[in-house]
Structure formats: structure tokens, C-alpha cells
Automatic annotation (TrEMBL):
Active site residues according to the UniProt entry: 56 (schiff-base intermediate with substrate), 89 (proton donor)
Function in brief: Catalyzes the pyruvoyl-dependent decarboxylation of aspartate to produce beta-alanine.
NCBIfam families registered for this protein in UniProt: panD (TIGR00223)
SUPFAM superfamilies: ADC-like
Name of the protein described by the UniProt record: Aspartate 1-decarboxylase
Ribosomal protein among keywords: no
UniProt cross-references to HAMAP family, sorted A to Z: PanD
Quaternary structure and interacting proteins, as annotated: Heterooctamer of four alpha and four beta subunits.
Gene assigned in the entry: panD
Annotated source species: Helicobacter didelphidarum
GO annotations of cellular component type: cytosol
Length: 152
């Protein structure tokens, strides 16, 4: 075997190895999942804090519906007044009531009148995440959706 044949074989092997690595990278990217912002209710006002309830955050069902937050969905709560950040799960309160009530242990992290941000995340394939648009709902001081303020 002459040196040009050896060089040619090495070049071919390198090309094959490069293609294999690229395929592995592409397959990995296809399987890759990321956690993305799914929904946000921005600047909701806490209407109550019920320490003696089992847990969760009770949310006006209209807010849940418009934001896409589901009953039982894990949500993060960001308290603008005191900087607390914690998570719990959402439960449905009466539609149109404006209720935003922290229950159980979470009630210790807020006070009635505090302004909070409620965030839900979703785990999705990377290719879906690249085009996904979260729903962001802005509310007034009575937790009513501001007209035209649902962003997708």
C-alpha cells in the first residue's frame, strides 16, 4: 500500500467519523427536552392567605382558562413585595371572582394585597420549544384580565 492510499483511507475514515458524530448530535437534539415558560399571570393581587387549607393556590378559573394553567399544575409564585419565590400547585376558584388565595404553608410567604407573578412551565421537545409561544395574562388590581392583554 502506498502512502497516498493510506492518506486516502484516513481521510475517508475521518469523513465517516465526522458524519457519525453529526448524526449522533442530530438524534440527540431530536430527543432533547427543555423546560420552557408555558404560562404567566402577571402582577396578580393576593386576595387571601389561608394557612389552615391543605395547600396550593386557588385561582379564579377564568384566569386559569385564559392563561392555560390547569388544575393540579405545578406553578412557581414570585412575590414582588418581599422577594419570596416558591412553588405549589393550582386549584380552581369561582369564575370571575378574582380569587388569588395562597393556601397551607404557602400562606406564610404572602400577605393579602401582595402582588405576585404566577408562572407555569412545560417540558417539551427542543424542536417544539423553538416555535412555542407562552400565554402571558396581565391583570388589574382586582385580578381581572386587562382588555387586550393576553399575549401569546
Amino acid at each position: 500500500m502506498n502512502s497516498s492510499t493510506v492518506d486516502s483511507n484516513k481521510t475517508n475514515e475521518q469523513k465517516i467519523e465526522k458524519k457519525s458524530k453529526k448524526k449522533i448530535k442530530e438524534k440527540t437534539a431530536q430527543k432533547c427536552r427543555v423546560e420552557m415558560l408555558y404560562a404567566k399571570i402577571h402582577r396578580a393581587v393576593v386576595t387571601d392567605a389561608n394557612l389552615n387549607y391543605v395547600g396550593s393556590i386557588s385561582l379564579d378559573s377564568k384566569l386559569m382558562e385564559q392563561s392555560g394553567i390547569l388544575e393540579g399544575m405545578r406553578v412557581d409564585i414570585l412575590n414582588i413585595n418581599n422577594g419570596e419565590r416558591f412553588n405549589t400547585y393550582a386549584i380552581t376558584a369561582k369564575s370571575g371572582s378574582g380569587i388569588v388565595c395562597l393556601n397551607g404553608a404557602a400562606a406564610r410567604k404572602v400577605q393579602k394585597g401582595d402582588i405576585i407573578i404566577i408562572i407555569a412551565y412545560a417540558n417539551m421537545k427542543l424542536k417544539h420549544a423553538k416555535v412555542f409561544k407562552p400565554k402571558i395574562v396581565f391583570v388589574d388590581s382586582k385580578n381581572r384580565i386587562k382588555k387586550g392583554d393576553i399575549h401569546v
